[in-house]
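For the sake of transparency, this paper describes our internal protein records without simplification. The tokens are whole numbers drawn from a learned vocabulary of local backbone shapes. One such record is reproduced below, unchanged from the form in which we store it.

. . .
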Amino acid sequence: MGLIALAAAAGFARTSHAGVLWDQIGATGSDLPTTGPEGYYRYGSQVFSGQPQYDLIALDDFTLAGESRIDRFEAVIQGYGNWSGTGNIQGLVARVFASPQQAAAGWSNAVATVQLAAPSAYTAFGTGLLCGFDVDITLGAGRWYIGLQAIMPGSAGQVGVVISNLGAPAQAFQANPGGGFGVPGNLIERPVNLAYRLSGSAVPGPGACVMLAVAASLMGRRKVS
């Protein structure tokens, strides 16, 4: 379904990354509004420990022109309800789908699922908290939908992904495959963009790999002569 390879490692410290593939977070936090067209500035995206019928994900789409490797996934999140802080977050899950409808039909439809440890620290950023993770996801060209879910019991409140003024058109989705929220079709469209950012690089095609191999061979010969 377009997934080429998948491995994962989680952490907050930023390492060296090839470049930004898609950015709806921005540099300063000024692009993250305090309210949105439906009166909310964050939308729930959570795994409810012990209550899977309520598990939901906030998805936004991105497009890759060619096969690409994603090595960094960032999001701005915020709590609400009985939220008392990040200490109740037990971990996070990143998922990629080919469509929102696939997400609404069940988590097993994800083309990539990455289990992530809760960061040791979060950064206050705009209207929420910035968290970032080193990942290793390679996807083919096309349109994909990604979301980040916090793992936390409902008794500790809810966690959502903050909205953003960056990106067009303004469209996101929430999927609740367990049906606990009673949304028709377990899917609802939202007229907003979400504060997600992906970093990585294009994967060289076979021709480019051959050229690199030839160049390396020539360099090796020069060193010998």
